[in-house]
Amino acid sequence: MTNLSPLDLMAHTAASSSVSDHAVAQRVFALAAEGLQTLIDGLSGPLGDRLVAAVDCLERASGRIIVTGMGKSGHIGRKIAATLASTGAPAFFVHPGEASHGDLGMITRDDVVLALSNSGETHELLDILAYTRRFQIPLVAITRQDASTLGESADVVLPLPNTAEACPNGLAPTTSTTLALALGDALAVALLERRNFFGP
């Protein structure tokens, strides 16, 4: 290898990097696929009943679907809100931090809240949780922890499978955000089909 020209050395390095990158991508895809399969399998058990209950809850709302979450969960929540709104379910995203500084007034008794938090212990969500309980506003949660502040506050919990994140340190939300997004898409499409939004 020491006799390689600079151009050959660059090509060799690029080839080695691509093999490594492919292995990383394969691991990321495999973990996501494993998590999605867990969700699919769960439909024949308690998750299936909870999913139907969540769709019922969202469908009954005469107001809007308020989606909320912090950090990466917030980014996923924004996408879910956009998907709901574009498929016939009036929805918008409320940032938990802004909610604590006046935006709670955007949420009415006719609405339903869909809250996302992997841990279920996101401090910034506490004011929204208390607000929904005080005014009896239905609350649907997507979280990994049933026995969490969010899980125990919610009317319906859609549990995320306890699958590994793709990040080597298990810190960066990767698999969990993919699964939360898939659950949000499932809710949106189920509502769309119940309401025959694209029907004749």
What's the topology here?
Elements: H1 6-42, H2 46-60, E1 65-69, H3 72-86, E2 91-93, H4 96-99, E3 112-116, H5 126-134, E4 139-143, H6 149-153, E5 156-159, H7 175-194
Parallel strand pairs: 1-2, 1-3, 3-4, 4-5
Helix pairs in contact: 1-7, 3-7
Can you give a write-up of this model?
With 200 residues, this protein is α/β, with parallel strands linked by helices. It has one domain (6-194): Rossmann fold, CATH 3.40.50.10490. Helix content is 52%, strand content 11%. It is built from seven helices and five strands. A five-stranded parallel beta sheet has the order 2-1-3-4-5, with helices on both faces. Strand 4, helix 6 (149-153) and strand 5 form a beta-alpha-beta unit. Helix 1 crosses helix 7 and helix 3 runs parallel beside helix 7. The chain is elongated, with a radius of gyration of 20 Å. The N and C termini lie far apart (67 Å). The model has no long low-confidence stretch (mean pLDDT 92).
Distance between the termini: 67 Å
Give me the side-by-side strand order of the main sheet: 2-1-3-4-5
- CATH architecture assignment name: 3-Layer(aba) Sandwich
Q: What is the molecular shape?
A: elongated
Number of strands: 5
Alpha-carbon Rg, integer? 20 Å
What portion of residues belong to β-strands? 5-15%
CATH topology assignment = Rossmann fold
Brief digest:
With 200 residues, the chain is α/β, with parallel strands linked by helices. It is 52% helix and 11% strand.
Keywords summarizing the entry:
Rossmann fold; 7 helices; five-stranded parallel β-sheet; alpha/beta; 200 residues
